[in-house]
Batch of 3 targets.
Target 1
Amino acid sequence: MLSPFKVMVISVTISIAFYLIVSILTGSKVNTFGLSLSTLIPAVISYPMSSLLIQYYKKIEVQRNELERLNEINNRLISIIAHDIKSPISGVYGILDLIELETFSKEELSYYIHDLSGTVDNLLNFLDDILQWSKAQIENKRIEPELFNSQKTWTQVLALYHHNIEAKNINLVANDLEQPIYADQGSYSFVARNILHNAIKFTPKSGSIYIDLTKKGDRTITTIEDNGVGISEEKLNKILHSKEWVTTIGTNDEKGTGFGLKAAAKYIEIMDGKLQIESTPGKGTKVIIDLPGNVPD
């Protein structure tokens, strides 16, 4: 965008050139008064007008960027609702449906009610975290990394998807979940939920999911691996880098928004992390999250 000074110079130059051309064509004498008017008038008009227009354009640009940011937050919340809230609620509904059949003994009924209570409690805690996270996003607060223990995050995430894992009879193995991570805890939780949800979604019944956290030097490596349907390199690149939202139906007809993995990759990048995805169609997918494991000097 041209500065007001450049606009003024161009306007004055055009005005003087026009005055000289008209003078030559009409045979009029070029004089100081004419040149002065040709200089003064466009300068007085063009400079303030261009300044106002530039300020107005910048204001519109700021508003446009803010609308895009809020729209992206809205998309993230839709993804969270679709992935992270709908699935646990479906699990709760399944338990209530079983209880309604009234085919349980007193001991079995007590077990399912206790299980239901735990699921609802985890869901309420999760909703509270999401409300705090979304409020910070809307208020445009900077992501503030902190050193935290990953155990609590993973306990909550696994509890959230407990019924989904059981429903598909997935063999889930989790090792060394208690590791230090220096990142934004809410964002790490978002990433963990989305990647685990995808692993569950694309793992067939009686399949396996492996979760491992390892400390390597000053980094913490989170690995989530499944033996599911896998994904081609072409489609993976499209998911991560295309502006389109690419969705795929899961092995149990689970639906998605196509937003979660793309958003997760962005968060990892913001938190000074690295995301690596290794996938082979028909064999499974391994997702590796590399994040700082201690406070940088």
Note: The chain is about 60% helix and 15% strand.
Target 2
Amino acid sequence: MFSKRHFYLIELQYLGFRYHGWQKQPNVLTVEQMVSRTTSYVLGHKKFKLLASGRTDAKVSAHKAYIELFIDDDPIIMEEFLPVFNENLPADIRALGIQEVDEKFNVILAPKGKEYLYLFSFGSKNHPFAAPYMTGIPIDLDIDSMRRAAKLFEGTHDFRNYAFKPNPETKTIGTIETSEIIKNTIYTANFFPEHSYVLRIRGKGFKRHQIRLMMGILFDLGEGKVELDFIKETLEPEKSFKLERIAPASGLILNNVIL
């Protein structure tokens, strides 16, 4: 018997620290696995599909992300579904809203931009409770040089040197609208250090590990291991470098997906 397909857009947020990324994988715990398991329990069947607006890596968190839910069964009553869905999701995953969309909507192509934040501090070791949210560099950093370097990423560049294991078909030219290091007043907690900072990056899309590689080279600059001119060279399309430092994942947050 033919059943009509229904489409729903769910706004989601999660703490990624205990998960091996979004995408379902064998033998590891992922966000998609928990969301799929909860969806199946609430619906009472498995005649559905989930698709995310983007796939976060292991330990990366999301303040605002979207998933599309495809159901080949009776339509759901959204105001009833959402509270039961949240009640059965793990405490570190929360659904903020749900709306019906049509078959023309594509959650992968729909985003006009994404904003990522990378939280960090320096000068001393952080309280252990800060570990899921922030990277602590135990030595002093030249934050003024890091701020100047962060602005170099703005504009359209070939980011091949900041793409993790690109192949010849990988499209590495992209545009970054905003790249800046600011004082962290966005996320606060009484166990955070007195002073912390945020690398704020906004653009259409990013390659795997791109922002963590960018943060890694900024850490190297702040520690005096590289010069500002070297970072300029990494953005020159004819020059190839193997950047070794990938900043820890737990400092990275997908802060917003703009639809």
Note: The radius of gyration is 20 Å.
Target 3
Amino acid sequence: MKTVRLAQIGLGAWGKNIEKTLRALSGCELAYTATEDWRELLDKKDIDGAVIATPPATHAEIAIAFLQRGVPVFIEKPMTESLADALAVEAAAHASGAPVMVGHLHLYSPAYRKTKELARDIGNIQLIVSRGHNKGPYRSDYSAMWDWAPHDLSMMLDLLGELPAAVSAWAVSPTRPGSNLWDFAQIKLEFAGGVTGFITSSWLMPTKCKQLTIVGEKKSIVYEDTLPDNKIALYENKDVTYPEYGNGMSLTEELSAFVRMVRDKEKPLSGLEEGLAVVLILDAAERSIASGGATVTLA
């Protein structure tokens, strides 16, 4: 079986986790790492794929440069920090034929995968509520909404298999008044099938939370990723059970999927289409916030 040779751009806090995982991953070799000098890698002929773990503002430039050379790319979430950049990445990918995978980590969590399986047996979904928050980090280049909400959006879109018909959102930035570096944001999603979704994102809260609640006609599920175990609670009337799930590491599963995409042409759970959809919704949320919470319709 061919060993996939990868280049990684970006070695920040999360980038170091990616680097460590790649170096331990079978089937691939982390051949190159780079930060500001990433352009030096563009002429390398022995790179099978590029992993981009830099700040979101740089994602489009780096991804497009590799895609134009036919190199498959993995882009950490969010895929880009603007819809225009996301569409530019899409155009470059279509022009070259090189595939794109976006780092929507929760889609590869064994606990989330079990949650999705269980959701098939809870009756028609009526409501999905997701919360992602912590005390910091206070980023200077993008907001808590763009930091946390991509996780929630990726799971909601994966569960429902469709884009929302309408988006509305509200946000505040008390630590940096007058800026759009939202410290707290709430997004409302209205789906054509009748499901309503709510997403709360913040870096002002005193506790860490990454929770997804799915309310069905017959049962409800709570997936709480920050728990050490019993990450899934299944509620039926007044009874609660804690279903078992696999014990694989989400990041290992995700990067293994990227290796298979490069080597075997396997379609990932979080490809170009899924990454673009998340940015499309976040763009709509920003427009809604700017208009005082007005509903934005998605074509």
Note: The first helix runs from residue 13 to 24.
